[in-house]
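Section: Multi-chain targets

For targets with more than one molecule, the full set of components is provided together so that the structure can be written out for the assembly as a whole rather than chain by chain. Components appear in the order listed by the source. The example entry contains two components.
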Amino acid sequence: KAGVTQTPRYLIKTRGQQVTLSCSPISGHRSVSWYQQTPGQGLQFLFEYFSETQRNKGNFPGRFSGRQFSNSRSEMNVSTLELGDSALYLCASSLEARNTEAFFGQGTRLTVV
Amino acid sequence: AQKVTQAQTEISVVEKEDVTLDCVYETRDTTYYLFWYKQPPSGELVFLIRRNSFDEQNEISGRYSWNFQKSTSSFNFTITASQVVDSAVYFCALRRGAGNNRKLIWGLGTSLAVNP
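Its structure, encoded as tokens over all components, is:
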């Protein structure tokens, strides 16, 4: 069974640009969550999607957005990139049942220069 | 508010030593879940264990064991006879049990170095 797949693995962007990251969850998983990981702030929740609807959102500015498609694949977008957006972005998928765990992809390493 | 504290930032041990990683959590919820994940240099977070708030039974999986104590709000992780392959950053996380919130609250992680 394939795991969570995130593309691309690495990205270098310039300040002011926008970027789109992709996540394909484990087959059968309809919940997809995104996290930002930085050395200073650690792991922080961005948002969660379920059945194409954003179910929860973290404390990030509106420049961070996402969506989920009917096949559960998810994308997140960051517009007007800032240097502080440089981070490892991790996607997690899980089953709907509460008593389950999230499985993570290898992440996308975004560097903003 | 919910919070997870991993007081040990870095731990260095020699192979075959036992090591315990501490995790203390705060929550007002009666139903919640606790997790441990391992993050090797490749970056992927690898799931190790999930424990719900109603199950205080300790668990052992090979060289890994977990001690969950609600009285002290702790969920500690012990690696017995550590190996070089155990070198990684380990994260403890908390999730609410009620509702549809899948948000994980994370500790800052403990970086474990196991030296040969």
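The mean pLDDT of chain B is 94.
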